[in-house]
Amino acid sequence: MIQRHDVGPRMSELAVHNGVAYLAGQIPEDPSEDIVGQTRQVLEAIDALLAQAGTDKTRILRAQIFLADIADFTGMNQAWDAWVVPGHTPPRATVQAALADPAWKVEIVVTAAV
């Protein structure tokens, strides 16, 4: 059985199947902030979706981070490092990518155990 949450006409924000939560790419609500602020917003959105699935950031299996400008790597890591739980840091990849909205500096996708 697949459970979908926050289902829209184009995509769902979250799907849960066989004890795994798959999140859509999360983007900042307020793109006027710098990379640290945008990353914090994205991580808060991830926390909220993981809670909906009945899990949390200590159970993330994998994270994929997309930066509009790889020069923002240090600032993104500042927010990331403050957010992750020591001893529970997930496997992660970070790449530079053209994001759908030029105001977005970061988009993050995670998969987590439920």
TrEMBL record:
InterPro entries: RidA_CS, RutC-like_sf, YjgF/YER057c/UK114, YoaB-like. It holds the Pfam family Ribonuc_L-PSP. CDD domains: YjgF_YER057c_UK114_like_2. Belongs to the RutC family. PANTHER family: PTHR47328, RUTC FAMILY PROTEIN YOAB. This is Aminoacrylate peracid reductase. It comes from Pseudoxanthomonas suwonensis.
